[in-house]
Amino acid sequence: MAQLFQVRLFFTLLLFASLLHAEFEYGVENTNNTIVQGSINPSSDAEYIYNYDRLRVRLDYTQGEYFSTFIGDIVNYVGKSYVASKDFEYVKLLASDTPFKTQSSFYDYTYGNVYLRAYRAYGGYENASNRVVVGLQNISMGVGHIWNPSNLFNPKNIYALEPDEVFGVFGALYTRHLSDLSDLSLVISQKKDKTLKYALSYKAYLDFADMGLNVISSDDTKMLSADMEGNLADTGIELRSEGVYINAQINQPLAGKKDIEMMQGIVGADYAFVDGLTVTGELLYSSEKFSYSEILSNYDADIASNLFFSHFYSALSCTYSVNIFLDTSLTYIESFNTKNSRFISPTLTYTLNDYNAFNLGAMIQSGASGSEFGDFKNSYYLKWTLSF
Q1: CB neighbours (10 Å) of residue 7?
Q2: pTM (2 d.p.)
């Protein structure tokens, strides 16, 4: 017994000694949105007022070359008519494409719904030559600011209230730093149906720009892409582009699977003026376009974010800092089709202090009936973010 006690004491002291050299960090953030929103069904005139609140806890642990992160959310919707609507039934369908559930069931109470979610949960190791990350994580690819056709893992949705709030990918990422100017990355992730998705990415700095080559493969999708980003001489203008070839299967409403082959690409530029104004422009082309019903039927497909209603789009985004407390931004997107339409998103941000920020914004959609944005109502929101 004495020997067993000594062994346990030895490992306890060893663990304690290692924890003394570890670093823990935590953060808590509550994001509260009051939203006025029309139905996502273009044939419906319904309009809802509801509150969306997300309490987020983040825990970070580092010890030498090892690290881990956990981010968890409590998500709450309050608004009796909204949580009882068909629009909210669609919200309930949205889930991470992982082999396990990353969120709990929705708990229904009198005026709303609440659920728990694991947003990120990963650990890894990094030294001068290698980086390994395993778990529920974000995989980034491409260089687009408005659209990102190269990214079939965590693509953002520019039309969403929070474009960068995307589901995590469960998998392993290995990056080999070949030199100070080049990296080779391999991704293996597991999807909801237990099949695997693979990616290989190479990035290097050439004499004039950063360049990347990406390959993604899964049972339903094959993608090959190239991207480039660099400064235009010494002007301060940043230029970027992505070109993508996709071969995939998608669902057709009431007609089973359909094979598609398409090319997509973006070109963009941004420039920061000395007075605090930053301007970003981007153009998107897609060789194929899809109906509204096809887009909804493939909400969980690998290429869901690559299914566009039109062949061609243009976007202009501006941000301007009025002073240290007040910032403004505006995003304008034009969809070119048989009937043109547009999406406009102005935002006013007031930063009260290090802990409190307020956003007042709108998502305005206009165009002829039958166009991409013409049949949808506008949305308005007030966001309060409390961080501590």
Answers
A1: 10
A2: 0.90
